[in-house]
Amino acid sequence: MNNVKKKKKTVNRYTVVIVIMFIIFSAIVARLIYLQIFKYDDYTDRANTSSRRLVTEKAPRGKIYDSQGNLLATNKQVYTLTFTQTDDSSKSFYTTMKQVFKLLDENKDSQQDTLNLKINDKGEPYFDFNVSTDDSKRALEIRFKRDRGMNDDIKKKLFKGKQELTDDDESKIDEELVKISAKDTFYYMVKFYQMYDMLNPTAAEKKTYKNLSAQEITEMLLKKFSINDIRRYMLVKDAIKMQSFSGFKPVTIAANIKKDTASIFYQKLTGLPGVDVALEPMRYYPYGQYNLASSVIGYVASIDSSRKDRYEERGYDVSTDVIGKAGIESAFESVLKGNTGGTTIKVDSQGRKTEELFDLEPSPGEDVHLSIDKNIQYSAEKSLQERMEYVRTQVYDPQFPIARDFNTTRGAVVAIEAKTGRVLAMASNPGFDANIFSEPGKLTPELSKQFFNPDYEAYGKMIISKYNLNKTIDELFPKDANGNRQDKYDLYPKPFYNYATQGLIPPGSTFKPLTSLAALEEGVVNPKETLYGKKYFDTRPLILGSWAPADEHEYGIVDLKRALAVSCNFYYYEMGVRMYVKNGQNTQALDSIAKYAWQLGMGTDPKGNQKGSTGIEIGENFGQTYNYEYFKSQTLYYSRYELVDFLSKGAYGTGYNFVPLDIEAKDDDDDKLKETKQKIKDAVIDVLKNSTNSKISLDGFETKLSKLLSDLETNSKVFSDRIKEANNSGRKYSQKTVIIAMEQFIFDKNGAINTPAELVNASIGQGVNNFSLVQLASYISTIANGGTRYKTHLVDKITDNSGNVLKEYKPEVLGKIDIKPENLAAIKQGMQMVNNGTDEGTARIHFVGFPILTAGKTGTATYKDKEEEYGRSDYSVYVSFAPVDDPQIVVAVVMYDGYQGNMGAPVARAIYETYFRDQIKQQFPSYQPMFNYTLNPPLEDVKDDNLK
């Protein structure tokens, strides 16, 4: 037997290495086969996608022309500097941007700055959203912070692990977002965009920086860079981030750079990865420097982030497109907007084009042709500005404490064709240069603040000092619940507020032609009847009691024509009462004037369904005339505030004094106290609401109020303490006195609602009568042309960019009113005497020597009682038409704090001199114009070759 043991064979270690290497290489080969054969198409698509870029080509907006084919808004091609993010351009971002900023600065070109987080003169961040309302600012601030992911951190803190958030949850996040200051937002963005890369850190340093707080990183950067330098880089970083929502497209570094600057960048592009130069259209307003028709045309600006979803759905590129923000630019946005084109290209690692894949031509927007005549518009704007300056600096009236330098800083003019409703000129002062918003760098922080966030405190101090007002800043510009000052008394001039279409003003005596029409058509007077125009209207005590409104003068014997010429209030007070008596002396009779006013477009019947509008294409406010339903609703609304006011003061009128009630609603009131306060107010208002024809039911009122006042004493420590203090000082608290004062308040308000006193006020254009200047022009036009009310319109036609008419706007009749020829003739003759009376006529001094017969009516309308204590004066309102025998043009003028109605008459004359200039030159060659720019308009025509 063989017992010899076999020797075990050992494994060679080289063999092991070979086996391992074989396995590794086999895996590599398998992976390569998988990637290059099985996944070839997939990765080819990915590579192509990452190297593709869409280079958008903006479509020019449609142009805006005046009625003579002059360009009011057009486009010009400008050079734009862009940056495309790629792997290579990202690696050298800060090096590249440093060179870019240096070149821009050397050539005095500005970096594009649309970031709403600004830096003030003190080096402090602040938000600037170019809106004036607090609600809009809050919404935009929230959107700004959400777009940059600031809500994510708050969500983790408040709702960690919660997947679906409710609307209440989102509201709580918004509340927290608003609390984050502009400074902390700046800190956040520095870290969010990893701006510590400005320091060119090593990998280890970068890891350390990531663990630092946003403030620590910012403070570290501030040791080497200024805050403005940091923000310059942040502008580009932020633009890339915001652009990423719309795909990988170039972002704009600088727009509208000079041609020489563009040439320099072209030469240096190879050393600036991602940077390129392109040509793009920019909105341009040829007459912008004159603010010509700015309130009509409007302006364009970038899309607010809060509205981006809405515009993305409509095909806008929210990162680069602009939209109309006001006027025609906004109202006809869908017409003016072109369709953006673009080219899909392949790019290399530096963002340079290597191949063009697809090209889509942009199509320009359609063109809008306005009824505005640029020469008439210029005369309107220029003469209005001159007249406002004249009132501010030249008018003297010893009756006013502010005898010189009225606050005549706001005004408007409207000129329309009497037989079509076409607007020939519409000016609102102050205006603005729309190029400020379309040309990068023109909207400075100073201008932005002036336009959208005015310093009411500084302005209020100036007003108080200038006019020696016995008011505090808080009284003149009170703060709202958020601590922001409000222009309660409409003192501050607002460039973006169209005073022609949005400002509602009392018409004053310009309403008297309407009262004349109503009285004549109602048959309560005839054109030849005369009466004695006294100073005090005290001849109707059975209807008006002891109330006797006054006129400035005693005019003696007047008929309708002379009453219009000299603006005799007594005559029109009498007409108001006569119509009231004729129509039944009831609440329906209080609408005696209103039923004619509604037919002339001066308000609408509250019981009807007619839409209140003049037809104007841009935003408007539509005013209402005095009528029973409207006045009652207004009285009930404001009575609540008056009730709280006098109860809080503890005094009503001259005969009722009592312990001041704790009646004003407060946040810290408990539920019982809130309920009691509300019931006291409701008890008074309900009695007024249910009163009719001067009949007041106070059954149970005293009992009800007695219980509520006792509840108030029980529930309000403030009120009970006041009662104890009064009783201890010998002034006994009397619940009865409080109730009697409330009853007197009810009788007073009910009397105002149900008696004809307000109708008498309305007959001369005072009281609650408030209308836009466009309404006034339209109503005078309806009378001038014999009774046809036309839609007021600014647009004549829409054309394509070749001049082909796509839509034409013809005169549109909104209504007709029958006017007896003899009545119409009397009204026109009276208005003619206003401008052309031989020895009287409130505007005659302004039309001496004018060769074409005109008609007019002045109106001096009070802002409010004791208006001078608030820095205000009367409105100067003036309406006119010409020629008298065949009216072609109607003009309406208003100057806020304009002193007297006739002050605006020269503005109408300037417009007439321009409108009739050819006729005047031909028929009256020796005529000397009142203005040196009317017969020979100074503005050159600006036209293009595309207009057919």
Number of helical elements: 36
Mean pLDDT: 89
Question: Could you give the count of β-strands?
Answer: 25
Structural class designation: alpha+beta
Oligomer: single chain
**Roughly how many Å is the radius of gyration?**
36 Å
Query: N-to-C terminal Cα separation, in Å?
Result: 124 Å
Family: Belongs to the transpeptidase family.
Membrane topology: Single-pass membrane protein
Pfam family, one: PBP_dimer
Main location: membrane
Can you put this structure into words, describing what you see?
Keywords: Cell membrane, Cell shape, Cell wall biogenesis/degradation, Membrane, Peptidoglycan synthesis, Transmembrane, Transmembrane helix. Residues 411-684, 749-912 form the Penicillin-binding protein transpeptidase domain. It is a single-pass membrane protein. This protein has 948 residues and is α+β, with helices and mostly antiparallel strands. Among the domains are: 15-51; 115-248, no CATH class; 455-491, no CATH class; 631-754, no CATH class. The protein has 36 helices and 25 strands. The strands form 8 sheets. Strands 2, 3, 6, 7, 12, 20 and 21 form a 7-stranded mixed beta sheet that branches. Strands 14-13-25-24-23 form a 5-stranded antiparallel beta sheet, with helices on both faces. The protein has a 3-stranded antiparallel beta sheet with strand order 1-10-11. β17 (651-652) and β18 (656-657) form a beta hairpin. The longest helix is centred in the N-terminal third of the chain and has 26 residues, at 13-38. It is globular. The N and C termini lie far apart (124 Å). Mean pLDDT is 89; it is low at 4-8 and 46-50.
